[in-house]
Amino acid sequence: MNKIPIIILLITxxxxxxxxxxxxxxxxxxxxxxxxxxxxxxxxxxxxxRIYYFKPGKPALLTTRIGFAYFPSPxxxxxxxxxxxxxxxxLLGKKDNKIEFGISSSYNFGxxxxxxxxxxxxxxxxxxxQPINNHIMIRVSYLPxxxxxxxxxxxxxxxxxxxSFGYSF
Length: 169
Prior knowledge:
169 residues, eight-stranded antiparallel β-barrel, 1 helix, single chain, Porin
């Protein structure tokens, strides 16, 4: 087996990953752990977000997020809902204040009779404060959302909002 193409591929990938790490002239921290209230999952979620940079000197950033939520439903006895929100967004702005535009999808599964196996698909329009010299991230967002139930085919358009706060590193 010819190992030279594999070695070249590994060296190239390592150089690309080093280049990704060095492009940070906005000063924004690249990782966020945060709690979102309401927002993508309607109640709360715990999330991890990674920030990527487009080009040096440009104020646009790209973010990806994945999260988790668990909702016990005491009104229906022993029912439970688990939710996994994912999103991709762009952040526009320099320094501490940024405008956010993106898309989010939250898949819900569990044994709640109303929300079993459903999804919330949203646009994200938000404002974020993420100070360069601090480890705090605060975000407020508006999410026009399309709800779909896989169980009964129900579709609904919702106006939702969210508030996030967390730790940047």
